[in-house]
Write a structure and sequence with these properties.
This protein has 245 residues and is an alpha/beta fold. Helices cover 55% and strands 10% of the residues.
Length: 245
């Protein structure tokens, strides 16, 4: 078996993490391990979708918290729970909260492979729908808003983008607020994840303006002298913003 996506492994103990990672790799899976769910969540916004395998025997409430957090963030990646627990109630509650399977810790290789294959199938079907939805939302952005969205995704600050595009920081901030509203997201992390889901990142970056960070800015744009008002009395920042349209 060779999965197209990485398997995100969350295990509460170092021993379980090593054992499960070894078993997954023996099946040909690429493994991205996390020692706890907080570590996984911190890097979630910049990771591509993939099956999630969770082992949290000693903390069923923490397991439920992870499933709830994924649901709140609209992360519908397939979740497989591996546990030594034989409590049916825990398994039922995990499935109610979004897990697609609940497996014993001593799972057979064939059963684990079957569960991962099912997760990959679900991920493919869900990814296609999510991609269409993301593309639909991105299509609502203006070319300038897409420029700024991808520049922000690459790590550019508002000040860097404003300097590169020749517009004011306030104009960048206004575009940023507009694009987040159009995308229907409440945080920049959600916007980055949506852009990644669209599958259009590279193509749109090629057609959008190339936002690079010139060497003179790296030396500190803050050290540059402020622009003097023009003879017409119009704020040059406003002139630049108007010229951009």
């Amino acid at each position: 078996m060779l999965l197209e996506s990485s398997v995100y492994l969350i295990a509460e103990g170092a021993q379980d993490l090593r054992v499960l990672a070894h078993r997954l790799r023996a099946l040909g899976a690429r493994v991205s391990p996390s020692a706890n769910w907080q570590q996984f969540m911190r890097g979630l916004w910049r990771t591509p979708p993939g099956p999630i395998l969770i082992s949290m025997d000693n903390a069923p409430l923490e397991l439920f918290e992870v499933l709830e957090e994924l649901s709140l963030r609209a992360i519908d990646w397939p979740v497989i729970v591996v546990s030594r627990s034989k409590q049916i109630a825990v398994a039922v509650e995990a499935m109610k909260r979004g897990a697609i399977d609940f497996l014993p810790q001593a799972i057979e290789a064939d059963d684990l492979q079957t569960a991962l294959s099912e997760a990959e199938d679900r991920l493919s079907r869900g990814a296609a729908a999510a991609r269409r939805d993301a593309q639909r939302r991105l299509a609502a952005l203006t070319p300038r808003e897409r420029d700024i969205a991808f520049a922000l995704q690459r790590g550019g600050s508002n000040k860097v983008i404003a300097f590169r595009l020749g517009i004011s920081v306030r104009t960048v901030e206004a575009h940023r607020a507009n694009l987040m509203w159009k995308l229907g997201v409440s945080s920049f992390a959600e916007a980055v994840l949506l852009i990644a889901r669209s599958g259009l990142t590279e193509r749109m970056q090629e057609t959008a303006r190339s936002i690079t960070f010139p060497e003179r800015f790296k030396r500190g744009v803050a050290n540059q002298q402020p622009r003097q008002p023009s003879r017409t009395g119009v704020d040059p920042h406003k002139q630049a913003a108007l010229a951009a349209y």
